Structures are given as structure tokens and as C-alpha cells.
Automatic annotation (TrEMBL):
Compartments where located: Cell membrane; Endoplasmic reticulum membrane
Main subcellular location of this protein, as a coarse class: membrane
Source species taxonomy: Eukaryota, Metazoa, Chordata, Craniata, Vertebrata
The entry's keywords: Cell membrane, Endoplasmic reticulum, Glycoprotein, Ion channel, Ion transport, Membrane, Transmembrane, Transmembrane helix, Transport
GO terms (BP aspect): cell-cell signaling; monoatomic cation transport; monoatomic ion transmembrane transport; positive regulation of interleukin-1 production
Membrane topology: Multi-pass membrane protein
Residue spans crossing the bilayer: 37-55, 109-128, 209-227, 268-291
Any one GO CC term of the record: endoplasmic reticulum membrane
Native source organism of the sequence: Crocuta crocuta (Spotted hyena)
Molecular function as annotated in GO: wide pore channel activity
Protein name (database record): PANX3 protein
PROSITE patterns (alphabetical): PANNEXIN (PS51013)
Glycosylated residues in this chain: N71
Length: 392
């Protein structure tokens, strides 16, 4: 008999989780994987395009070529190129023979608009990092620690029950005390559950998360307006008529009023416009999906942790509207599942619980571990019948 008890003690000792104090949980993920993907693409892609625009300008020289008259000197031709690039105004005649001016400034502002786009897309990330990440980090540290501690408390409780059962000379006293403890709910550790209840009534994290993704959608809409209103207007215009009768050439009679110029960077503008439109269009469903995840609970994580004596959010139907901080915390717990050592243990116990023949007697990890340790989760029938016979 002592050999069986020793084996049970070893089994329970092996089931204990290691105490991870000190520099633990420093690798917490405070961004969901899809949010991180959206951040890298939304911020990094315009920076990549900006470097492409600058590289083309440095490798190909000035992004404009003007067809100056043949009698122009080299200095006059260079002045024409610089003047037309500075103005970037196209002069064309309308049906009445009057000249209309059309600005081509998106060509000049292309690299800087990409930089402004990257900064705008990074603002929601900064909002999350400074407004939500510190509080979320504290919540995750506490909840992960308490989940693992609650599991360890359950194992220690079974160890204590096993020692009491070994020392108890009368089995009736042990089972009476055990049934009394279950009725009085002594096996529960309600601190974590109460904390999660408070988070269910809080909305600061979810509001920040909604604001972050809403800003991303707003800035994406602004990109569509910018590309459609400004880039589309100059998308196919490779040549334009530039007026150079200004400055040094204003008094020159042999200078024509308009000179034809060609934009050598039109292909870069087209590539940037089409690629930006494609990439940000593909990001919109991802952002919307991130928002829709707040409309449903991650019940798989909760169902696994219902094996803990102090964790019955589902069975007591405490989960109402999912748009609250608790749902956001559950999403980040799923992202940091590698830090939850107790999750893998409880997942195994849940699988074993479904295969056991005494499902109706096993509700928590305490019940299952007492069964593995050689104790019945409820009073044996022969002891129950004996009590009934003694008290007819």
C-alpha cells in the first residue's frame, strides 16, 4: 500500500509546474499576429516604395527631360529643366483657345507623400503601444501567473488530501470532511475569477483596439481618395507643355512661349499607385476580420481552464456581450499560449476526462488528479451503504 502511495506522490510531484520567478515572461506578445502583419505591411510598404522612388531619381538623373530649342546654350537648357521641374504646370488650350493650367505636383511630392503615409499608418501602432500595451502587459502577467498558480494549488490540494487519507484511521471521517469541503466550496480560489469578472465590465482595452483598427480603415480610405483624386489625374500624362518665359528668359524674344517636357518618372508613379491600391485593398479584409474577432468569445481557452476549481465562467453563463476587455485579453492569451504552461497540462486532462468512464464524477482537475492518485472523486458506495445501514 505504501508503494502505491509513494507512486501517487511522485506522479503528483511531476505534475507540478516549475516556479518561474525572476526575468520571466519578458517575451510577451502585446500585438496579435495579424495586427503585427498589418503593421509591417502598412508601414513598411510605403517606405519600400519611397526608397524605390529615390533610387530611380539618383540612378536616372533628373526625373524630367525638356526639349529646348537647338539655339539654347547648355546653361539655358539646364535652367529650362530646373524651372519646369520646380513649377510642374501643364499649359493647354481649351476649345476657346485660352490656356488652362494643370498642376502635376504629385510627381514631385511622390516620395514625401509615401513618407507621410508611413507615418500616418504608424500612428495607430503608437496609440496602442502607449495607451493599451502597458495595462495589457500587467493584465497578462497577472492572469498567466494566476492560471499557473491555480493549477499548482489544485495539485497541492490533491497532495494534501492524499496525506490526510493516509493518516486517517477512519475513512468515514475523511469522506465526510471532503464532502463538506465540496459543499462549502473550499476548493475554489476566486481571486482570478473575480478579476476576470471586473475585466468583463471594463472597456478601455477594447476601445483602444477598436480605435486602432478604425484609424487604419480611415487612413486607408484617405489613401483611396488621394490616389483617385490626384494620381489618377496625372496617371497617363507623360508629356506636358511648360512655360519658361520667366526669370532669365522673360525678355528673350527667340524663346517660345511653351516648351514640351517629358516625365521620365511616370512609370514609378504608376507602379506606386497600382501597388499601393492593391496592397491596401488586400489589407482592408484583414483589418475588418480583426474587428469581427471581438464579436465572439474564444471559448476553447475558457473550456480548458474550467478544469480549475475557481474558473467556471462558461458553466455559470457569465459571458455576455463579447465587446469588452476580457475578450481582448483572451485573444492575447491565445497569442501567448506558449507562456501558459498549465494550458498544455489541462488540455491533456480534458482529453483524458472525455475518455474516462466516470465523467459524471469529474468536474475539476482536483477530481481527476484524485482519481489518478488512487482516490475516488466521491465517497465509495460501500461506505455510503454502511452509513445508511447504521442510520436507518
Amino acid at each position: 500500500m505504501s508503494l502505491a502511495h509513494t507512486a501517487a506522490e511522485y506522479m503528483l510531484s511531476d505534475a507540478m509546474l516549475p516556479d518561474r520567478r525572476g526575468p520571466r515572461l519578458k517575451g510577451l506578445r502585446l500585438e496579435l499576429p495579424l495586427d503585427r502583419l498589418v503593421k509591417f505591411i502598412a508601414v513598411g510598404f510605403p517606405l519600400l516604395l519611397m526608397s524605390l522612388a529615390f533610387a530611380q531619381e539618383f540612378s536616372s538623373g533628373p526625373p524630367i527631360r525638356c526639349f529646348s530649342p537647338s539655339n539654347f546654350s547648355i546653361r539655358q537648357a539646364a535652367y529650362v529643366d530646373g524651372s519646369c521641374w520646380d513649377s510642374l504646370v501643364h499649359h493647354e488650350q481649351d476649345e476657346l483657345g485660352q490656356y488652362k493650367m494643370k498642376s502635376l505636383w504629385p510627381h514631385k511630392a511622390l516620395p514625401y507623400s509615401l513618407l507621410a503615409l508611413a507615418v500616418a499608418m504608424y500612428l495607430p501602432v503608437l496609440l496602442w503601444q502607449y495607451a493599451a500595451a502597458p495595462a495589457l502587459s500587467s493584465d497578462l502577467l497577472f492572469i498567466i501567473s494566476e492560471l499557473d498558480k491555480s493549477y499548482n494549488r489544485s495539485i497541492r490540494l490533491v497532495q494534501h488530501m492524499l496525506k490526510i487519507r493516509q493518516k486517517s484511521s477512519d475513512p468515514h471521517v475523511f469522506w465526510d470532511e471532503l464532502e463538506k469541503a465540496r459543499k462549502e466550496r473550499y476548493f475554489e480560489f476566486p481571486l482570478l475569477e473575480r478579476y476576470l469578472e471586473c475585466k468583463q465590465r471594463s472597456h478601455s482595452l477594447v476601445a483602444t483596439y477598436l480605435l486602432r483598427n478604425s484609424l487604419l480603415l480611415l487612413f486607408t480610405s484617405a489613401i483611396y481618395l488621394y490616389l483617385g483624386h490626384f494620381h489618377l489625374d496625372v496617371f497617363f500624362q507623360e508629356e506636358f507643355s511648360c512655360s519658361v518665359k520667366t526669370g532669365l528668359l522673360s525678355d528673350e524674344t527667340h524663346v517660345p512661349p511653351l516648351i514640351t517636357c517629358r516625365l521620365t518618372s511616370l512609370s514609378i508613379l504608376q507602379i506606386v499607385s497600382l501597388s499601393s491600391l492593391t496592397i491596401y485593398t488586400l489589407l482592408v479584409p484583414v483589418i475588418i476580420y480583426n474587428l469581427t474577432r471581438l464579436c465572439r468569445w474564444d471559448k476553447r481557452l475558457l473550456s480548458v481552464y474550467e478544469m480549475l476549481p475557481a474558473f467556471d465562467l462558461l458553466s455559470r453563463k457569465m459571458l455576455g456581450c463579447p465587446i469588452n476587455d476580457l475578450n481582448v485579453i483572451l485573444l492575447f492569451l491565445r497569442a501567448n499560449i506558449s507562456e501558459l504552461i498549465s494550458f498544455s497540462w489541462l488540455s491533456v486532462l480534458c482529453v483524458l476526462k472525455d475518455t474516462t468512464t466516470q465523467k459524471h464524477n469529474i468536474d475539476t482537475v482536483v477530481d481527476f488528479m484524485t482519481l489518478l492518485a488512487g482516490l475516488e472523486p466521491t465517497k465509495p458506495k460501500h461506505l455510503t451503504h454502511r452509513v445508511c445501514d447504521e442510520n436507518p
